Amino acid sequence: MQIEYPTTVSDAVDVLASWPDATLLSGGTDLMVEVNYRHRRLDQVVALRRIAELAEMDSAWIGAGVTHARLERSPWQGLAEAARTVGSPQIRSVGTIGGNLGTASPAGDTFPFLAAVDAAIVLRSASGVRTLPWDEFFTGPKQNARRPGELIAGVQLPEAVPARQAFAKVGRRSAMVIAIVSACVTRNEDGDVTVALGAVGPTVLRARQAEAMINAERRLTDTMLDEFQRLVADEVQPIDDIRASAAYRRHASGVLARRLLERVW
């Protein structure tokens, strides 16, 4: 196995220009599970943990190397709530948002927040920078639009992130669990609501019809809540698997989104 330890993003993309199919390693919380079970063979590795640029974070930028432990203390309530549900404290101390994006699991806990605020994913390579909206970056279950020779530089947030945010997820136990359903709901100062859900489709998704319905209203009534819950449940695309049935996921999606809407209202 060959391994490189670049200390800048420029150095990393130079290495990737020569090794376009190299494995990128940051926290390793997903990758090393695959390696330990012999599901992945590593020939060329670019280790990213020494790149200080990737750990930068400000009011509109989250570097790919920012850990979930740092996101727990971030100013974005929905993202902080999501980060607190990731694995154990040990996992959160090394696992990064860039690794989460690279894995692109439909159940990725940070993704409903990113979708709800319309974040963009920034990719770097020797040929330049690409910025993709979240819904162009995620292309399928554990699939994304990163090309050979590219690395995930970070997440660009919009200038105005809604002040009211809430995240929650449902799992088979209360901690250290992969989501059966996860959701993030936001509401801005004008009253407009966004709703994003994870683990109920091939990628994270937005409940656009539910958003349109609730954004046409300025009063929250039981009738509106019932219709909002119904629309969310209709829009998700769940499957049956070992953790839950599609029917349960559909029901839980509506209930979870309704509760979060009441929180942000």
Major sheet strand order:
4-5-10-6-7
Gyration radius, rounded: 19 Å
What do the pLDDT scores average to? 95
Task: Give the total of beta strands.
Answer: 14
Would you identify the CATH H-level superfamily of the domain at 164-264? CO dehydrogenase flavoprotein, C-terminal domain
Helix content: 25-40%
- CA(first)-CA(last) distance: 53 Å
Q: How many separate helices?
A: 11
Report the CATH architecture of the domain at 164-264.
2-Layer Sandwich
The name of the CATH topology of the domain at 164-264 is Enolase-like, domain 1
CATH class of the domain at 164-264: Alpha Beta
Instruction: Please report which band the strand proportion falls in: under 5%, 5-15%, 15-25%, 25-35%, 35-45% or over 45%.
Output: 15-25%
Sketch the major β-sheet.
5 strands, antiparallel
3D shape: globular
Low-confidence stretches: none
Sequence of secondary-structure elements: EHEHEEEHHHHHEEHEEEEEEEHHH
Q: Structural class from helices and strands?
A: alpha+beta
Textual characterization of the structure:
A hairpin with a 6-residue loop joins strand 13 (193-198) and strand 14. This protein has 265 residues and is of the alpha+beta class. The termini are far apart. The strands form 4 sheets. It has a 5-stranded antiparallel β-sheet with strand order 4-5-10-6-7. Strands 11-12-13-14 form a 4-stranded antiparallel β-sheet. The longest helix is centred in the C-terminal third of the chain and has 19 residues, at 246-264. The chain is globular, with a radius of gyration of 19 Å. It has a domain at 164-264: CO dehydrogenase flavoprotein, C-terminal domain (Enolase-like, domain 1, 2-Layer Sandwich), CATH 3.30.390.50. It has helices at residues 9-18, 31-36, 68-71, 77-83, 89-94, 97-103, 111-116, 134-137, 208-215, 222-235, 246-264; strands at 2-4, 23-25, 44-47, 57-58, 61-63, 120-125, 128-133, 138-140, 143-144, 151-156, 164-170, 181-187, 193-198, 205-206.
